[in-house]
Structure to design on (125 residues):
């Protein structure tokens, strides 16, 4: 990949794997990373990853059991908390598999970030 190109990643539950890969080496070589429904990224703070915390976007549905019940248990701190230091992305979907629902703001926000644009506003869940 050319040095001046932009690269983005949008993992879901595999975010723990992405976090481990990023924290343990040179990083994922991305400009922005989107993580939804994540129970953890294997680190305690966003600044322990090889990415600017201002370019790490985290979203979680209010009723996502994976994100809300298992966060902080085994994969590092909960990435959706302010103390973690990532940017929150507005999510308007339900459950652990709704993040890609057609027409959802969740999907639009991921698309915007991948396209290098800021996500839409709304109440952060």
């Amino acid at each position: 990949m050319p040095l001046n190109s932009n690269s983005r990643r949008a993992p879901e539950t595999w975010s723990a794997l992405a976090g481990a890969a990023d924290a343990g080496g040179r990083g994922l070589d991305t400009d922005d990373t989107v993580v939804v429904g994540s129970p953890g990224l294997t680190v305690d703070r966003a600044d322990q990853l090889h990415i600017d915390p201002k370019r790490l976007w985290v979203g979680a549905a209010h009723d996502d059991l994976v994100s809300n019940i298992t966060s902080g248990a085994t994969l590092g701190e909960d990435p959706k908390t302010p103390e973690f230091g990532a940017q929150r992305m507005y999510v308007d979907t339900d459950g652990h598999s709704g993040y890609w629902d057609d027409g959802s703001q969740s999907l639009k926000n991921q698309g915007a970030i991948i396209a290098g644009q800021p996500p839409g506003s709304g109440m952060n869940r």
About this structure: The radius of gyration is 13 Å. Confidence is low (pLDDT under 50) at residues 9-14. Residues 8-114 form one domain.
